[in-house]
Automatic annotation (TrEMBL):
<dbReference type="Pfam" id="PF01168">
    <property type="entry name" value="Ala_racemase_N"/>
</dbReference>
<dbReference type="InterPro" id="IPR029066">
    <property type="entry name" value="PLP-binding_barrel"/>
</dbReference>
<dbReference type="GO" id="GO:0008721">
    <property type="term" value="F:D-serine ammonia-lyase activity"/>
</dbReference>
<comment type="similarity">
    <text>Belongs to the DSD1 family.</text>
</comment>
<dbReference type="InterPro" id="IPR026956">
    <property type="entry name" value="D-ser_dehydrat-like_dom"/>
</dbReference>
<feature type="domain" description="D-serine dehydratase-like">
    <location>
        <begin position="249"/>
        <end position="356"/>
    </location>
</feature>
<dbReference type="InterPro" id="IPR001608">
    <property type="entry name" value="Ala_racemase_N"/>
</dbReference>
<dbReference type="GO" id="GO:0036088">
    <property type="term" value="P:D-serine catabolic process"/>
</dbReference>
<protein>
    <recommendedName>
        <fullName>D-serine dehydratase-like domain-containing protein</fullName>
    </recommendedName>
</protein>
<keyword id="KW-0456">Lyase</keyword>
<dbReference type="InterPro" id="IPR051466">
    <property type="entry name" value="D-amino_acid_metab_enzyme"/>
</dbReference>
<dbReference type="InterPro" id="IPR042208">
    <property type="entry name" value="D-ser_dehydrat-like_sf"/>
</dbReference>
<dbReference type="Pfam" id="PF14031">
    <property type="entry name" value="D-ser_dehydrat"/>
</dbReference>
Amino acid sequence: MSYLNHITSPTLLIDEQICRKNLQKMAEKAKRNGMKLVPHFKTAQSHVIGEWAKDYGIKEITVSSIKMAEYFCGHGWENIHIAFPFNPLEAKRLNRLAKNQSLSVQLINETTTQTLVDALENPVGFFIEIDAGYGRTGVQFSDFGKMEAILRTAKKSDKLKFRGFYLHAGHTYYEKDKEAVYDQTRAALGMLKAKYRSEYPNLITRTGDTPGCAVMENFGDIDEMGPGNFVFFDMMQVALGSCTREEVAVALAVPVVDIQKERGEILVHGGGVHLSKDYLPGPDGGKNFGEVVFLTENGWTIPKERSYLKSISQEHGLIKASSELLKRVKIGDLLGILPIHSCMTADCMESYMSIGGEVIDHAEGARQG
């Protein structure tokens, strides 16, 4: 029986073949550049997809919270890195988790470092997060006083081990000149490695944004890459030039509940609680909340004529339909929506269905179960 016969309400589909190709392509790029790939699993948040990643030599992962780290513990990862400025209120929780799992965290100030010095009874690694122009978080790449205060404080404990510097070049999401952004990234991490490697000969440098990791070929002497969204990609990444529509590995299946041919609109069951409310500017100056694809027995196909979600509310989605779509669709059919932001869509949906009709786990769904 086709997977389509199992769907009666919004369902997040995953194409394993596309996902595996994305994993393989990034793993090959990392190897080609002499780097280790440590993907950020805030996008997939799945044990099953984690096992797919292991097939491409991936042994360590990154997560965005200690809650997510807990979910992935005990599944054979050599290390799990929590890529968020560490929350000192979770120090005891981190210590308990570190008893049985190799972990690392990100530090950006002396106060949190001291909290870990006082709390840790089990070894934990740490990266100092560096800001080289993004402005969201991190120590300014030239603020050696703050870096050395963190390192000095960490030395008070034999449980807190310095691993290196982490830089998320998030401005590749809005800066057109990605090469210029990576000039900053390479320069900042290269300078820090040169300055500190005599004292810390094994220090690692890592960068982690999907737009940069997807298109750049010159990473200088950066040791590791940790992108996340590349596992699925999405329409935002298509717009940024990181991938093609054909490389997007997830699509939200939505039931058609009404058709207004005179207006060129199709109403579907699929809204903000399924896709989130991220959008791109539409071709007519409006908003685009997702691109329509045709679902097939083997996945989905890209229409010749473009249709997109022009508006969404909590449960409703209104499609601006092409003439091709209006001719093919009827009430009760299923359509696919390529999401604008796949990380948020996956988090909203809390599970996946494979093209073979199998349910695939997601961390949020597992916590509910």
